[in-house]
Amino acid sequence: MFTLRALPPADGNVLLAAYHDGLRRHWPLGRRTVARLIAASGRSGWAASERRLLCDAVRAQGISMRDRKGLHRLLNPGAFPAEANPLKNKQLFARKAAAAGLPLPDSFTLETSDIASWLHGQSVIIAKPSYCSKGQGVVRFAKKGGRWEGAEGPIADDALRARLLAIWAAGGVIQRCLATHEALADMSPGALPTLRVVTCLDEVGTPEACALALRLSAGGGRPVDNFNAGNLVLSVDADGRCGPVWQAAPDGAPIRFDRHPLTGAPISGRPVPDLDAAVALALRAHLAFRSGFTVIGWDIGLTPDGPVLVEGNWNPGTDIMQLVSGRGLADSRLGALYCHHLRHLPPQRWQAAGAIERDARRA
Fold it and tell me: Where are the alpha helices (DSSP H) in the chain?
């Protein structure tokens, strides 16, 4: 995988201008030429799916998923190599979060338990491969009548143990499947709902919660609530209540609901449980992970026992935040902080950035 940075002929908003002007000022002619060729080839800007998802007014003040990675890589120099990135290496994330005293799902660790003993005390588990995103590769297994079953049906104990140990050996994590907060059970059938909290260091270096979105399962067998997996996302208003629900249609166009499309449960206007505690947890987490990371997208699980830290993302998606807020990132507090940090980046950071950079796993 690679990070591409493009230089288009013109910028449509202040955030893109701050990003691209920094590249133009600090890059030599050869690198600027490569970046202009990338832009001319159509490898930057809005993808067709984003044009269907986001209206013209949002895109005019927004940033595309193609452009945000290069920007986030400037703001988050701790992202690569991925093996040393605690927001990409899931086992490293778990160790660092546990050391900071942050609430996490009960997890298997080879150093403290054998897999058979750990499984004996579980009824539903989730296994997540490392270095993946958007819910890719996540699998769930449940114990039914004394036997384990996965999405493909029953699985023998020795086969399950072997599969889980292979995931662990490749850097993944194996966790107890968290229960859904009872106030959200009819709003998120099939998977744990998570509150996406985007935190960014403010002008004096203190983490600030700048954007919120609640993600819900649309139902079905998938154990994830990711929007791009067909699930639901909504805004949270200043009073802590749910806004209208959005889902992408098969053609990528946004569909709006006020009720859950499967359960029929009303959603718009309902309060989000433990909202203040979830946001506080995200801010605590950023303090623990701030070295090398200016902006982080946190996934906070909303459970009967309170908020639980599920994961952090060094390259948080901008599409769902722009969709639920109805405005582009440049027209937001988060966008203002991006511009602030871009203006204060040291010249060496700009000069080290490439038009094409490999997403290295190891140093």
Answer: 14-26, 29-40, 48-53, 56-60, 65-75, 90-99, 115-120, 157-169, 275-289, 319-325, 333-343, 347-352
Residue 359 lies in a domain: no
User: What pLDDT, on a 0 to 100 scale, did the predictor assign at position 225?
Assistant: 75
Residues near 10 by beta carbon (within 8 Å), at least 6 away in sequence? none
> Do 111 and 22 have their domain in common?
no
Contact 173, 90 (CB under 8 A): yes
**The amino acid at 182:** E
**What total of structural domains would you count in the chain?**
3
Q: Is 238 helix (H, G, I), strand (E, B) or coil?
A: coil
For 101-137, write each residue's pLDDT tens digit.
999 999 999 888 899 999 999 999 999 998 877 777 8
How open is the CA angle 284-290-292, to the nearest 5 degrees? Answer: 165
pLDDT band at 267 (very low <50, low <70, confident <90, very high): very high
Q: Tell me, what's the pLDDT at 47?
A: 94
Nearest to 256 by CA among 81, 58, 91, 53: 53
Range of the domain at 145: 106-176
